[in-house]
Amino acid sequence: MSIKNNISPVLEIKDLKKSFGDHQVLKGFNVSLYPQENVVIMGKSGSGKSVMIKCLVGLMKATSGTIKIKNKDISILGQTELDFLRTEIGFLFQGSALYDSMTVRENLEFPLRRHKDKLRFRESVHDLVHEALENVGLVDAIDLMPSELSGGMKRRVALARALILKPSIMLYDEPTTGLDPITAKEIIHLMRNIQDRYGTSSLIITHDVDCARVISNRIILLVDGINYAEGTYDELSSSKDSMTKMFFK
Ligand SMILES: Nc1ncnc2c1ncn2[C@@H]1O[C@H](COP(=O)(O)OP(=O)(O)OP(=O)(O)O)[C@@H](O)[C@H]1O
Ligand SMILES: [Mg+2]
């Protein structure tokens, strides 16, 4: 019997369907994410990976299916409960999505001001901003504007912002896309450090085979709106199935 039989997932997506008019993007997708696990979702461009994550964080409404976060069905929660649950989730958007008119410090302060109640005793906004920037090695950039940062630095600031409320679940949408291989490796390294330091569970959407190899405990392939295959990196990358093979070329 697997140990997972006794542990409930921190996040569970069941039979998720999402259509835009006649276009069925997700046709019954399932994900369970267990404590301190890194699950990677791979799928070709346009397969619905970002749509799935947007349904998960409430930026989009699913056509049907259930989404449970920490055993709570998000569709039946009130606004207060939902807001609280959101502070448990850090989301690194595809691209970096920093506020261009705010400094790095202001970008990081933004989620703190929105969720003041999550601040614990003795933790000042200043200390939290510093800690978050230290985690990504960018304390010196605190007063810069996003336009003064390189692509890799922006991604790190976005990562710091996603982490500032010390979420127990992290969602990463293409964390390494658009970065050079060395910077991509640095970001993957940071993601691992963060997991070790805070015991976070992560759902990671990526095309990047290297990223999937280094970071995943489990990989799910999303094809035609459903789970096509699932397994460890070693299992899937040595698969004889022609569709599965294409992902690991
Ligand atoms: N707001 C929307 N209205 C209509 N169609 C949409 C909307 N958002 C996404 N789609 C469609 O849903 C499909 C999946 O989009 P999605 O952004 O999830 O792809 P993806 O798997 O994240 O791709 P990529 O790897 O390029 O980021 C696409 O065909 C897209 O056109
Ligand atoms: Mg996407």
From TrEMBL:
Keywords: ATP-binding, Nucleotide-binding, Transport. GO terms for molecular function: ATP binding; ATP hydrolysis activity. Residues 11-249 form the ABC transporter domain. InterPro entries: AAA+_ATPase, ABC_transporter-like_ATP-bd, ABC_transporter-like_CS, P-loop_NTPase. PANTHER family: PROTEIN TRIGALACTOSYLDIACYLGLYCEROL 3, CHLOROPLASTIC (PTHR43023). This is Phospholipid/cholesterol/gamma-HCH transport system ATP-binding protein. It comes from Dokdonia pacifica.
